[in-house]
């Protein structure tokens, strides 16, 4: 190694070492779903009340932390990948255009303007409503429900309450900075 490269190599090494603590101690974007039992299963309060299910259909409390820098809006989706729809799954809830300063959606917020974060929009689910639709798998089946909180690089996506889950996904495409996921479960024992 030539001696004239030593100062430059030391500067580069020092700069890299200065970055290590920030990377090593940064906390990851996470999501938490409350109102579930200790095994991560939905309570009857969150279960859908139709299609043979007899729950209260109350949206759970969802919170997230460590939103990445540069986030301009948040999108929450709840999707059942196990639904018998030929591999497409089933969207149970979608809330878009949540301000990046918001860190939770309160229990029972769906359909309640005073509890829903200001400016947030609930869009269509696969039940055909623009509100939360709880779990309701076919009798005898256990399904996963993936809660995804997406940090976006745009302040809003061009959707309305009547927008489909596919349009929400399309508008998010290319704008996702990071995602945090939580998987809850529900087993339906009978009709």
Characterization of the model:
This protein is globular. By secondary structure, the protein is an alpha+beta fold. It has one domain (37-188): PEBP-like (Phosphatidylethanolamine-binding Protein). It contains two helices and eight strands, in the order αβββββββαβ. It has a five-stranded antiparallel sheet with strand order 6-4-3-7-8, covered by helices on one side. A three-stranded antiparallel sheet has the order 1-2-5, with no helix packed on it. Keywords: Signal. Pfam families: PBP. Residues 1-26 form the signal peptide. InterPro entries: PEBP, PEBP-like_sf, YbhB_YbcL/LppC-like.
List descriptors.
single chain, about 190 residues, alpha+beta, Phosphatidylethanolamine-binding Protein, 3-stranded antiparallel beta sheet, 2 helices, 8 strands, about 25% strand
